[in-house]
Amino acid sequence: MAFYEVFSHPALVRYRTGVCSKATLFLLVVLCLTYISPLLVAYRSQGFWIKRSTYEEQPVVRFQYETLLVAATGTRGDFVAWSTFPHLNNMLGSNLRIPAVSVREEDQNQDGKLDLLKFQLQLPLKAEEQVYSIQLLLTFNYQLFRMSTVVMQSLAFVQHSSPVPGAKLLISGDLRLQQRTPLPHRGLYNIYNVSVVDGSSPFASSYDLDTIISNYYNRNLTTVLSCPMPVWTVGRAAGSPFELNAEIHYPVEVISYRPGFWETIKFAWIQYVSVLLIFLWVFERIQKFVFQNQILPTVPVLAGKPHLS
Amino acid sequence: MSALCSASTLLCLILTLDAQTTNEPNTTDIFNTTGDTNITYNFTESYTTVEPTQSPGAPEEPSLPTEPLPESGRLPIADSPVGRLCPCDTHRDVCDINCCCDPECISQEVSLFTSCSVLTVSSSTRLCSRDVALYTLRNAADGRSELQTSVSVETDYDLLCIRSQNRHDSFSHPAPVTPTDRNFEGLFEQFTSFVFGSDEAELVSLTELQTSSGYQYGDVVLTAAQGEHRGVMLLPASGLTAQCVDSPAAFLVDQHSLCSQHVILDRDCTSSPALSMDTFTDIQLLSGRNAGAAVVPVTVDSVTLQSVSGTQTELRAGSGGTLTPAVMRPGLCANVVLKVFYVMEYSSTGDIVNATVSVLLGFIQKTSLLLQQEFHITYVQEDGGELAIHFSGNPGYVSGLPLESATRTAQGLSRSVGHFLSVFHSEAHQDCLQGPHQRSLVLFGLNSQSGCTLRLTDTFNCSLLSELLLSVLRGSDPAQYVALFGNSLLDNPTDWLQIKRVSRGEAAGCSVPLSLHLEIEWTKYGALSNPQAQIVSIKEIIQTNSSSLVSLTGTRNRPHIVLPTFNAVRSLPGPFERRQRRPAHQQLCGIHTSIRPCSPRLQSHAYHQRQAAL
């Protein structure tokens, strides 16, 4: 006659012992090991508290229509310059050369954020002049909204020189965000919402490129024009202007920020609990082994069974 | 998916509503057209996102046309049949070439087409089922083209498509706001936040009259120029480039500017105002900004003439009028302004009470050059006596400021010339024996190095050479003491540290100094939150030649290189640690000046600051 398992159920066994006993001590040790060790494991394996996290956002960038242009027109230090700052233009005197400028900002993917700046500049030159180098400074209004609201004024600076006089310069690059320290996770961050170039100042020192650039790079948050391949076209025809075409893209940026309290806790909790589960399972087995085999003296009581004594 | 959508109408309704209320002003397009290059044409672009803000209780606006667009440019409404839309129809009443949807094209013209520039015109891609007008050209048997037009219904199986939309403007940009008297300012600000020429308005305020009488810090110093207009005191400075531009002088802002002036000798020697002394001395300043301000003429304190070789002689002030640039002989222009020093005295109410100027004049020899000019302006308070002594820190040294030095005299300590420690400065001629030598200040915290080359002939006087080189290295008036703190006073001799002089190297016979190495050890002193730099020891190590100089001197100036040794950081001596509460950092600042016997290579110098030559 064959037997088969017709039904099964787990039986609960209670192990009783006094308060001051080896089993109590063992239980305390096991509890400590179960709950504290995962914390140590998670913490010592690095990355328990996240200090820095990143997110992606396309910034809202607007060209501020502030421009500063210096072009070396000779090898002996001659130059012509132009800016949108009237005080500087007054100071430049005979070196002022007003170019024809056209600017267009495009929203290519129709998402409401501008993606591209097309800046075209035609610098008229006299017969004896040739362009050997170009320095161009453009200022931008730069805004981020997703985590902390960042409003700042930033700049793009291009410098290109060549021993051969040029006819055209094409600059095609990205306006990239540079961070030294991560941004806060919320709040308004507008300490850099000040003019990069003080256009209201009548003093020459305000327009010194050295000062402008060194002050700018002291900031935590800057933008830099990444243009790995400027194209310098030679062979300018007599009487034709020097052309400068810039295409500056406003790409999606990966921005690092310091996570807030709940985000930090959330990631710590995930790490802790995932390690804790392993420890719970292991120590459950150890406890079962110890008490089932009566390695520590306890009184096992089968649940549901009435006391005989 | 369409079946799923129709099954759960409620879900689709929610999706429809959601799609309609999404606040993306520029993503809705009226219809899409797909050409043979798959370019999507967008007919309207609008950045209008705000609705006209009108308060309900406001009085009735003057009735303006509600539809600002002219009749001819009217946009097609969103639910136009796709068969009537034609994005490539850009010529009125004329058939557009290869535009298959152009209703003006008759069959004879269409038969000449080779392809259709627009192949499909469809309504919004977000709809689950949409009308699509297809235009295809078929080659007939005679080689001519025949147009086939068909409008079909295309079904989208996207999960999140819109099954039906009943809102009128859902696929359109919001209608442009009609400008009225009330919202004009807001619209103007919104759309003209950044434009060219937004800075122009600020130009006016330069010489505007102000209510307060005196100047304030940073105000432009005014001059009583000819006629009605007030002028501005101009002080050349380097602007965008190293060339001089005329920048206004700012009240209470001490300025030191070095800039270059492009000079073509024949043209500019007598005519250029930038070279003439009068430009900088003949100035009538206004004592204040108000209308009744007194006129303060700039008085000439001294005029110094620098010869071609570099020697300077002071001319008596006021003797023989002003010196104007003049061509002495072809290719030599005399009395050219090289340096200008203004000292402005001001009162506590912000008035300029006195202004003096010192000028250094010199010669230009080249026919065309960039002439370097130097301009200083210093503001001194009235009754403040002479120029106040500049301390290099209070009390501890500030990095980047010069070290205070002194010499011992019979009366006690006295500040040495320029009262700062200085070292030899590298020059273009690189010759150690060719004077006069420039000295550069030893700046606190900055390690630096400079050098020159020494060329010896077979016949040289050893003791004379040794003495000469020592004076080149140490300077004409060598300092003996250095202040412990940046603000040490001469009255406290304990605040001054004697320079320990060490001589190294031994050579049989003639021994000349080849390098001077200054080791300045300093420590941080005082509270942790505000540590003060204190100099704890200063040592001058003079390295003499270790081998016989005879072997260094070749027959024909054969180069022989002795590399200068430069010591690294050394730990601080012990006794001072007891005096400090907590020695946080011990650092060492090394200054090295070396003489290289006949080294053909240029030596780099780490910093460049020259003492005032006047």
From TrEMBL, chain A:
Q: Which Pfam families match?
A: TM231 (PF10149)
A cellular component annotation (GO) from this entry: ciliary transition zone
Q: Which UniProt keywords apply?
A: Cell membrane, Cell projection, Cilium, Cilium biogenesis/degradation, Glycoprotein, Membrane, Transmembrane, Transmembrane helix
Q: Which InterPro entries match?
A: TMEM231
Q: Which residues cross the membrane?
A: 23-43, 267-283
- Major place of residence: membrane
Domain of life of the native organism: Eukaryota
Query: What name is this protein filed under?
Result: Transmembrane protein 231
Per the UniProt entry, what species is this protein from, by scientific name? Gouania willdenowi
Automatic annotation (TrEMBL), chain B:
Q: Where is the composition biased (Low complexity)?
A: 60-72
Segments for region (Disordered): 48-74
What biological-process terms (Gene Ontology) are attached?
cilium assembly; protein localization to ciliary transition zone
| Tectonic-1-3 domain ranges (all copies) | 212-381, 393-544
- Every copy of the Tectonic-1-3 N-terminal domain together lies at 82-182
| Annotated keywords | Cilium biogenesis/degradation, Glycoprotein, Signal
Coiled-coil regions listed? none
The entry's family comment says: Belongs to the tectonic family.
Oligomeric state and interaction partners are given as: Part of the tectonic-like complex (also named B9 complex).
Q: What is this protein called?
A: Tectonic-1
Q: Which organism is it from?
A: Gouania willdenowi
